[in-house]
Amino acid sequence: MTDDLLEESAFRLPEGYESMNWVRGFGRQVGPLYERINDDGSYTRAFLVQDHHTNGMGNCHGGMLMAFADVAFGHAVSMAEHRYWVTVRLLTDFLSSAKVGEWVEGTGEVIGREDDFYTVQGRIWCGERTIMTGTGVFKTLGERPAKPEAK
């Protein structure tokens, strides 16, 4: 137990990132996940590859990368429309892998819209290495509540 606490405290969150602090649901299972919102309105989501993210070869599991792509790409809809969304389709290409201890980042950009359906193009990377590219189709639902003001 103590070793786990010491390992966690050794990690320094890159500048501008904040923990997403999901209090329920799937994000708690695959996290921790982090987010940075830039002054220009763009965003990057990220995670540190840990043992629970890996497959039998010690690489970040493809299922983890798919789950991360979903929340990284789909967030482009929230940024554009401030609405909840669900995934209709997610198509990805795995180009590289990530190992334990590597910082993985991802983002998406809305490239099309028809009615309540948004097409997003996204990219997942680690440093200069692209790990995954893809596109997703997301359907918007209800309005997202405003975030509480920081104290």
* Number of DSSP helical runs: 3
In helices, the fraction of residues equals 10-25%
> Which of globular, elongated, flat, extended, rod-shaped describes the shape?
globular
Approximately what portion of the residues adopt beta-strand conformation? Answer: 35-45%
The CATH H-level superfamily is Hotdog Thioesterase
Q: Could you tell me the radius of gyration in angstroms?
A: 16 Å
Would you tell me the overall average pLDDT?
A: 89
- The arrangement of helices and strands along the chain is HEHEEHEEEE
The count of β-strands is 7
Report the sheet with the most strands, covering strand number, pairing sense and barrel closure: 7 strands, antiparallel
Kindly report the CATH topology: Thiol Ester Dehydrase, Chain A
User: End-to-end distance, in Å?
Assistant: 32 Å
Q: Please state how the strands of the largest beta sheet are arranged side by side.
A: 1-2-3-5-6-7-4
Tally the structural domains.
1
Low-confidence stretches: none
Structural class: alpha+beta
Please report the first level of CATH classification, the CATH class: Alpha Beta
Proper CATH architecture: Roll
Task: Please write out the topology.
Layout (H helix, E strand, L loop, with lengths): L1 H9 L7 E2 L6 H5 L3 E4 L5 E6 L13 H20 L1 E12 L8 E12 L2 E10 L2 E15 L8
